[in-house]
Each structure stands twice: as C-alpha cells, then as structure tokens.
Records
---
Amino acid sequence: MATKRRPFEVIAERLIELLIKLCGISAIIFVFGIFFFVFREGAPFLAKLKVGEFLFSSEWFPTSQTQAKYGVGALIVGTLSVTILAMVIAVPFGLGAAVFVSEFCTGKVKESLKVIIELLAAIPSVVWGFVGLSVMSPIIINTFHVPIGVNMFNGAMLLALMSVPIMVSIGEDALKAVPDSYREAALALGSTKWQTVYRVLLPAAKNGLLAAVLLGVGRAIGETMAVLMATGHSVRIPDSIFDPVRTLTATIAAELGETSKGSDHYQVLFLIGILLFTITFIVNLAADLAVKGIKKQ
Amino acid sequence: MSVEAAITTPPQPDAPATSRLFAETALVRKKYRRELIAKCFFGAMAAAMVIPLILIVTYIVVQGAPSLSWEFLRTNPRLGGIRGGIWSAVVGTIYIVTISLCVSAPIGVLSAVYLNEYAKESWFTRIVNLAVVNLAGVPSIVHGLFGLGAFVYAAGMGKSILAASLTLSIMTLPVIIASTKEALAAVPVPFREACWNVGATRWQTIRRIVLPNSISGILTGVILQVSRTAGETAPVMLTGVATFKAVDGTGLLLYNPLTDQCMALSMHLYYIATQASGAAPSLPYAIATVLLCVVLLVNATAILVRGYLRSRKKW
C-alpha cells in the first residue's frame, strides 16, 4: 500500500519545481532583457537616425559642437578587417591543432596539450591587450619598419591567439563525433592517418568544423579590451594591414565614459551595442544550425 | 612483356620472391613520407599555440619581478594608482567575484537541472538552449551596456559593486550551465530509475542522486566562472569599477558593496598600462603577473579537481 506524502512535502516539491523551471527559462529572459535594456537607452535617437548614413558613412565626429556626425561605416570596416585578418591567421592553426590533438597524438601529450589550450583560453583579454601594447608593438615596429605598432596586424594577432582555443576545442569535439568505424574502414583499406584525415574525417566533420570557425569569428567580433588597447585609435578605412583602426566594441568602451546620459552620442553608442548584438546573434545562430546539421546525420 | 612471359619468368636470383612481393614500392614510400610531413605540420600548428603561452607568461613575470613583493600586494595604491601596491584592487576583485558567484551558481545549476532533467525534446527546449549559446556569445561590452541600462539606471543601483557583480553573473551564467549540464548528462539513467522505483519524487532523486554524482562537473563550472569573472574588464568599467578610489585601512572590509564603486585588478592594469603616466615601468607587468597568477591558478585547480573526482567515479 502506498503511503501518502505529507502535504508539506508536496508543496515543497511543487515550489522547487517552479523555481527550477523559472531558472531554466532565465537564459531566454536575460537575452531578451539585454536586447530590451540596451535598445531602450538607444531608442530615442532612432527618430533622428538615417539608417543609410549611420551604417555606410565613415564620418564619425560625435563630439563636434556644431555638426556632430554619427557614421559607423569606418568602425564596421575596422571590425571586419581585424576579424578577417585574425581568422586568416587563426583558422589554419586552430583546425590544424584540432586535427593534431584529435588524431595524431595520444596519452600524456594529448592530455597536456588540452590543458595548455584550456589555460590559453583563460588568459583575460586585458592581459592580451597589455601584451599587444607593450610587447608586440615594439616588435612590429622593428620587424616591419612601420611608424605605429598598435595597428590592425597587432590586434589581429591577439584575436587569433584568443580565438584559437575555442576553435581547437569545438573542432576536436567535431572530429571526435565522427564514428570510429569510419576510421577503421579507412585504415583497413590501407590508408595512412593523413589520408584518413584528409579523405574521410574532414569531409565527415565539416559542419562541426564550420561551427568551430564561426564561434571563433563571434569571439573575435565581440572582443573589446584587446582591440581597445592594441589596434590604435584612428577612425578611418585602413589602406594596409599596418594601419591603425578602430572597432565597434572599442568605440563603445573608449567613448561611453565621456558622454552624458541621454545625449545623442550616448544613445548612438547604445545603438552600436544593438548592432553588435545583432551581428553576434546571427553568427551564433549560424554556428548552432551547423552543429544541429551534424546531429541529424 | 606478355602476361605468360611475366608468369613464367623465374624470379631474379638475387631477390627471393617473398621479399620482392613485400618490398616498399615508390608509392608506399611516398605515402609514408607524406604521413610524416602531415604529422610534423600539424604538430607545428599545435606547438604554435603552446610557445606563445609560455613566452608571454615568462616575459610578463620576469618584467614584473622588480615590483613584486608581499608589501606590493598588501599596500593600497597611492597617487592615482602609480605608487604603492594593489591591495584595494585585489579586495575589489574578491568582492565582485564572490557576489557574482553567489548569484550565478544557484541559477546556473538549477537552469542546467531544468534543461537536463525536466525539459522534453521540443522547440521550446531548443530555444532555451539557443538562448544559452547566445548569452555566451554576446560581446562583453554589450553586457556592460545592459548592466548600465538595467542595473545602474533602471534598477537605480547606481555605479556600484552590486551592479557590476550582477552584470558579470549574467555574463558568466552559460559557463556554469554548460559544465553542469554535461555533468548531469553523464549520470547514468538507471541511477534515476532505481531511485524512482523506491518511491522518490523527481526533486528527491535530483537532490540525493543526480547532484551528488555530478558534483565534479558543477565544481569545475563554478571554478571556471571565478576565473572568468576575475579577468573581465569591459563590463565592469561601465557598471561599477573606478580607475582609482582611495580607501582607509588594509583589511578585507574596504567597500560597501551596495553603494560603493571599487577598484579591480583587471581595470587597474588597463588604467596603468594606457592612461596613467609616471608609474614605474615594471608596475603594469607586476599587476599583469598577479592577474595571470590568479586566473591560471584557479584554472589549474579546476583541472585538478576534475581529474581527481573523475578518478574516483564508481561507474
């Protein structure tokens, strides 16, 4: 015969389940909250905003007394150019290291490599920025004989180092998800490891690897402190990779402190925040869809 | 040479049939050469990550060594931060880390419990998961804008330790959710079934069986959250961390977390490295060393805890 539960226990159980459900959906609440509160601060300026001018003009003169101009074109180009250069450096290294960790090494070497990757991922972005500012900048000036060491190349190197760990760990997961029977079949046909990787594993894991790259891109676009400290501060469209640039994130971080709450400049900075939020949202959504693609196979 | 001729031709006297059969052809040699090249190439890619880590850490520590001492750690900064030590920044970081941990650990763990134990396969669960991924992907400076708009202004907290900590706790929530979820999923389903069969409710099962068995993953997530919070700069500089703040005394109770702004290690490094003039050249390196030590030690602890608890696992 079943014993009856005491009413207190039943109520407690109900309450705790309610709490768990509330926490469960908290992530949704927070994502909407972020959008809502950032948008709310920036919204009043929307009435005055010409979208075309905002996105494509590169005239960014927010502090001008007579004619303030808010064109983020140069900032978008700055963000994109630093991110693309960073990815050109990081993707081969990230995926190459993922292949090495997953397929070419075993035991102690593998464990210690994974630990080092984890530690690399843990270094705070302000420390990276400091490294760019005071270590890499003189090295760049001396090696490439350019006048300014804090430039796009410097920032891209830092972003590459920062986004490689996430690519390695997601890429390794993607390679691990390929069934062992694929590897065994390839080996049974007499192929070497390299042939297995090149002909079997990379095609089979391509969605996961794509997701790894996209998450690295998301990380690079959203990075603030490193680019604030190491890419220089000139708002213009760069001619070469050794030109200083300014990114969207760095602009917010550098200028928000000097604005007064509610001013046009302040509101525009929040709109830049919404722009960043939208860009990273799309990148993350794409990465998520790529991963879902593997699971369906 | 015709086929018959090939079959009937006797083997060369100086090469026995078997060895000729198994001899490496040029093709096989090429195959192994490529294998070696590929291995070295990928190994170099991996080494290219290890070497900068070691070089950077060593360089920073060596450069910072002249300023480092126990006194440096325990004295408060003076003259806008360019003289004296870093104690009030250390305390500020401790405050922020502790408060944000207290907020995000329970929410994160319960959220993971919901996703792993209660949620069914449905479009709604998928959206929740997507929200977690996106929360992790939102740029840190946008989290800062959110904290400024929501906590500092809308909730009326002003720029304070509380506002900064709450901002960081939301930002680092996905770290705890991800590692707790992984740990919960690793607890075998029969454990739960056995518990349900003796009449336990869902929550009793979770509290007595599932959570204790996944403590290693939860602990790892919590520790990683600590290291992430300690190093974050962009969100807290908008919501409650000052570049310099004079305080009295060298105890732990320097600030009032509800109203005061504080100093923090990460912000202190940014300020000294970029804006302050007249500081000793080794000062920013010393601050960076302390910050790196904190973060790397905390992470190393997470790795050790995970390894230890994994080795004790009974299934």
Note: Chain B has two domains: 16-65, 68-311.
---
Amino acid sequence: MSLASVFDIAAMGMSAQTVRLNTTASNMANADTSASTEAEAYRARRPVFIAAQQQQYGQLQSLNREQASFGVMVQDIVQSQAPVTKAYAPNDPQANEEGYVFFSNVNTVEEMADMISASRSFQMNAEMMNTTKSMMQRLLTMGQR
Amino acid sequence: MTAINFTNALGVHEQALHLRTQRSAVLANNLANAETPGFKARDFDFVTALQQAQQSQRHARLRVTHENHVTSTTLSHGSISALSYRAPLQKSLDGNTVDAQLESAAFARNALEFGASFRFLNGKFSSLSKAITGR
C-alpha cells in the first residue's frame, strides 16, 4: 500500500457516497409519488456498502492479504420494508375502485439526515485526498534545496 | 566497508517514512468504510512495525556468491506483519467499529508525522550532499 492507493480508496469512498446521495435525491423526489396499488407504490431505496477486497495482491506487498481490504463499494441497493401509506382520496386520478391511493414510504426527515451524513462523508474523503496530495507533493521535493 | 553508507546515513527515517505512507493507506481505508455495515477498523502499532522493519533491514542482504560482488546494505522496506483491529469506544448496531472522528484525527496526525519524517530524511540528504560537494 502506498500513498497512491489512498487516492483510489478516497475515490471509491466518494463514488459510494455519491450513490448514496443519488438514492436520497431519488427518494426525496418521489416522496409524494402516488400509485393505485400497494405493490406499485414507491419504496425508499438505500445503498448497502461493503468493504472492497483487494483484487491485485501485488499492490498489497507486505500487508496480510486476509486482513486488508481496499476501499468501499456499493454492494446492492435495497428497498425499504416500511409500510406504504394508504390514503382515501376518491377524486385522485390514481385512486383504485375503493377510492384509495398508495403513497411512498419515504421518510423525508430521515432522508435529510442521510443526505447530510453522505455529504459529510464525501467531504471527509475529499479532505483525505487533499492531505495525501500535499504529502505526495512534499515527497517530490525530496533532496531539493 | 563503504565510505558513504545510505542505511547508516539515513537511519531510521527512511523506514519511518515508508511506514507512514502505509499507515495512511490503512487509515484511509477505515475512513472510506466509515458507513460499511460490519466493517472493523484496523491499524498497526507503529513502534512495533518500525522495530520489525529495522530488524528485517539488518537481516535482509543480497546473497554474494563472488568476492567481486557488491555487498548490499539493504533492499527491504518496512513491513507490517499484521494489522490489528481497533477496540471500539462504543458499540454500533451494524457492527461497524470505525469512529470517523478518531480515524480522521489519526489520519491528520499521521500526515504531520509523515512531514516530520520527511524533514529528517531531507535533512540527511542535504547534509550528505554538503559532505559530497564540500559547500
């Protein structure tokens, strides 16, 4: 593992957080989406992160290969199992025969908190990249006077 | 044996700098996985790793099969035998043991210590070049 691998790790972290922000944006946008059946109702999506295992052991050098992971990846995007809200709105164009519409199960407060958390994590990864960049730039001046 | 021996001249700082870069990668990995369920934060003990690196430096030499062969001082880099797991201050529901604040503090500190090691190493180089050029 070298300084260059920090860039890869931070980049993976940033892309994972971007996916998270993406799902949050999608959830927020669809918070008020209605559907005529329960199955069609929008369900909040959420990414599942997994520690990425190092593919090329060559880069690992001396690190124990079982123990070392390398960055983060989005393993899957799951849908929330929370119940969807059912509302009686007979005048709604999407109402079913009984006059009900089904709204999404998005919790906007939760989504806002998730959005802030994702953007903070993104910032942290960007900061990590910046620190590493200055370390590498310093390293390039080795032996100069 | 040799007039200017890089290993003797540079001392511990070369190994220290190498270990600092390795540690930054390990800490970066922890930070990137701050929200990964079940991920366990890892780190290594710097002092132990440095001692190990110095020991392996003493033992690692190129094999000499002819008297005209150049004897090497060192080829080894600091090596980490094993990463250990960080003991979490607080348990989390998803089994993740990364404390983002703690890790980013360690990362920042490691970057500073990298800077210190770099300065020491750079100082060694400038004194070597001063010795060579004589001014």
Note: The CA atoms of residues 89 and 99 of chain B lie 8 Å apart.
---
Amino acid sequence: MNMDPSTQTSAAKAAYDIRWQRILDCISLKQPDRMPVALYSTFWLAKYGGVSHKQLMYDYETTKAIAERAVLEFDPDVISTLLLTVASGRCLEAIGFKQLQWPGHGVGENQPFQYLDREYMKADEYDEFLFDPTGFYLHTYLPRVAEAFEGFAELPHFAGLYYFGLVAGIRRFTRPAIRESFERLVKAAEESSRFIGHHVQFQARMASLGYPCTNGTTGVAPYDFIADYFRGATGMMKDIFRNKDKLLQLLDKVTILLLRHLIPNAKASGNPIVFIPVHWAPDAFMSAKHFETFWWPSFRKLMLALIDAGLVPMPLWESDCTKRLEVIKDVPAGKCIYWFERTDMVKAFEVLGDVVALRGNLSPSLLTTGKPEEVDAAVKHLVEHVWKPGGKLILDAAFGLPDETPVENVRAMFSAARKYAG
Amino acid sequence: MNDTTEREQQLVDWLADMNEDDSLSLARQMLLEDDKDPLRVMELCRMAMDIVGKRFEEGEYFLPELVLAGEMLENIGAIAKPLIKQVPGEVAKKLGRVLIGTVHGDLHDIGKNIVSFMLDINGFDVKDVGIDVPVKTFIEEIKDYQPDVVALSGFLTLAFESMKETIAAFEHEDMRGKFKVMIGGGQIDETVRAYTGADAYGRNAVEAVNLCKNWLGAAA
C-alpha cells in the first residue's frame, strides 16, 4: 500500500507534539523538558548536499531531498522554512525580479542571492505614497522592482474614473506593454503557485516525520520596510533629518498595510509564530533618540497587534542590540521570542529573561572557522549562563547556519545541546 | 575680524549639529557673496567633521549623522571647489594612501562607502576599487597605487574566505610587508581577523580611521 508521504503516524504525531510543546513552553516562559534546538538554514544546504547554490534555488525536488536528509540527521526540535528560503530561482526569473542578484543572474552559481540596496522610491515621492499607496505601487513602485510589472506604468489611474469615463478609460488595456505585463504575470503566478505548493508539501512532509516549523509567516518592521525596500539605506538615513514628518506619517500608514497581510497570512498558515528579521535596530545604526522616535514605536505597535490577534512575534534582532534591550523589553510577558544575532545572550537573558523566550546565537565566525570543540564550548557557555539559570532559550546559530559552516561543526552544535541540556 | 570668526564658528557649529539648511545657506553666502577663500571654507568643514567624528566615537552620533555630514560636505564642496584657484606646486599634504574594496563574492558597499568618506575627510588619499573585487584586481591596483593601508570590506560570511584568499595572495606576491591590511564588515570580529591574517579589524568607520592614523604615525 502506498502511503501519502505527508501522513502523520501516531508516533510521529507524539514526537511532533513533544517538540512543539517545548517551543510553546519557552514562549509562555515555562521551562521545557530540554533545551530545544532549531535547524535554520539558507544556502548551507548546498554545502551539506554537495550541490551548487543554483541547484538549490532551481531544483525543488533536490532541495527537498537534501533538506529532509539534514532534518533526519540532526533531529532538531524545530526547523525553518527550509525550501521556501532558498528555492525561489524560477519565480524570481519568471517575474524578472530586480531587487536581488542570484546565481546565474548577477552572481556566480555558488554564491548566495544578494539584495541590491537602491532608492526604489525617491525622496520627493513620500506625498504620492501617502496619498495613494495603491496607485503609487501600480504606476511607480512595481515597475521599478520587477520586469513583469513594467507595463503597469501605463495603466490608467483608477481612482477618479467614473461612469462613461470608466468605460472609456479601460481601453488602455489594449496597449502592448500592458498586455505583455499581464501575460508575463500569469506565467509568473503559475510558477509562484508551484513554488508555494512545494513549500506546503515539504512542510507537511516534515510534520509527518514529527518536525514542527518555527514560523508560519515572515514579516518586516515598518521602518525596515521603508528603509530596505523603498528608500535604500542612505536615503532613509537622510530622511531622518530631511523628511522626518512625512517619514513618521508613512510609518503609521505602512504599519496598517503590513498588518493587513501578516495577520491573515499567519492565521492561514496554522502556525502562530511570525518571524521578523530586524535590520535597522542595531546599536550602531542610530541614536537612542532616533530609535525611540523612528524605529521602535511602529514596530511595537505591529508586535502588539500581532499579539492581540493571538500570534507570536519572533523578531531576529540583527547585529548588536545591547543598548536597545531596556527599550524593547516593553512588551507583554510570555508572548514573544526574541532571537538575537550578536547581542550578548547572557546580557539579553539578564534584562529580558522574565519577558520573552530567547533564540540564538552561536557566532558565524566561530561556526565557519572554528573547530568542533570550540562549538561545543560555545554551546556549553550558553547552557550554563542562559539555559540553566532559567532562560527559555531555543538554541540556534546567530542567523541560522552560515552557508560555509563545516558539517562537523553543525554536528558539534546539536550533540553539545543534547550533552549539556537534555 | 571677530565678526568673521563668529560667523566661521557658526558654520562649524551648524554643520556639527546637523543643521543642514542653515549651514548650506551660510556657506553659500560666504563663498558666493563674501568672496571668502574657498580653502578656508573647506577647512571649516573639516573642523566640523572632526567634531562629528568625536561625537560618533563618544556614542552621541551614529551612521545617519555620518551620512548627512557627508552630504553637507559634498554640497558645500560642489560650490567651493570650482572657486579654488590652483597654485602650482601647492598640494595639500595627505596622511597616507588607503586602497579599499569589497572582496570577491560580496556586493555590499554601504559600510565601505562610509569608511572611504571618513578616511577622505580625515586627510587620507583613498582609492575605492569597488565591490566584488577579484584577487587579481586587488594585486594590480596595489601595484599601481602603492597604498600604505589596504582595507578589505565584506558583509556576508563568504567574505571570510575571500579575505583570507586575498591576503594570502599578497603574501604570494611578496607585497604583504609593504602595507597594513585592515578588514571590516557586519560579521567581522577577532576570530575572523585571525583566520584571514589581517593586521587589524575595525567595527566602524571611526575605528578604521584610527587604525590608519596609528599605523601612519598621525594619531590625533
């Protein structure tokens, strides 16, 4: 009899429930039976599986097979969205995505994709975005970020069309550039459906083997959304001085826009955890005053709205956020996971241990250049100074496994977790 | 004279305090209406940048202030530079030469650009060789430019290996002893410095400037 590969046996269900309960316990600040360990990877799977970065991005079946092998070898408590994170090559190509360079499209076959920091929205376009976000997206933003949308620049301005003017206004849809955009978008959407189908299938397969996923959906901080995807790094830094009032207005507005996606997406996924990589919070990136004016208020509002909706925000505080700890502590206890990249986890535990679960944070330099015994010692350090004193720690690398991590160091990470923390 | 000095100080203060509109307007007035020596105006800008650098070191200023300072300086420079009368043989003395680039495989440039800017305003000659720079290009550029310091930048973890390869190539080319090598970027720490064989690493642009000043005997 052929069994559906995503059918969960009762043994697998029991294993799944035990693993997931460890995460839920951490979130609600109860001590689980052992320290959970997460397997989060992007292009490290290429090293592990002996394939190129390009294959990982383009070959759904190969990527799923490698990811499954890694999960079964390391037996983590939770996994990341292993396929979704890397296998987007066909989709990016279909839509002609301009904000990334990826293997075969700007970088070599064995290099990770890299984001292109540019001004995708100009400083003098705040008013347009604020007045009519959808119009700004259709005519200006989308054509800038993906080739498939380029024809949209010629679309009519829908708002304001009425009666016979509306009937006449639609004739622009006959324009070749607009037709071409729609034709290309349908093909891109078909690829996107295949991609997400593989992702859903992979997650179901992992669940059938007893492995829950750390997050159902991924979000972004309102400030980072504008900085990364619209204004670019230096544009945003100048806006803090030159366009501060408009920036504050836009932060308010995009918080609502982001929540309109995040809450239904997270609920549809069936997993309450919302992963939010945080780019612009680090100590070095802005003063405490700027942080508390521009960065934190909209992000806190977003997190509280997620919590109100029964969801669990899991920000990954990139780089070193030690000086922010007292500020970011201002959330309800037992509702969030704070993942830290370079912030000293012991210090984070001291300040936040009674408010949030923690995740992280073996250093990338250690994992990529260190020896297994050094990885072992680093895990032991976290166990002794965070886990054993009562920290609700989910062990992980600083930002998942660096792509270059030797496999023996990953083995050392997982075996040390079991050795020192159950 | 006192009045002029006060105005000069006003420009320095406004620049250092991130008052962009007033400082640009005053600088424009000095240069275009008062016929003030453009070299003197640029000197005032440099004094302001010293204050900005100190405030950065003291934790009062951060990247946004450095970026805005760079913009203000560029805008004033754009007015001042065409007015500077070249005197034959009079070349501003520089503290040394720094060649900077992002190592191969890595396309990031924000940190590198800020370090370049800070080195420049602190009196170094800087040659920026760009991003995703192959080892061979570094070697050729170094032979041509003869820098005192080579600065390797990288944000991704793949940069660890690229930096190591690049520095190993300096050894192979027998040029490693001719300049200092500093590295920097989001993930760089002492472990990576030791791994790559660099002389030092800097956590930010001011540390990069201080490394160069110390190496070239120009400690502030």
Note: Chain B has two domains: 2-83, 97-215.
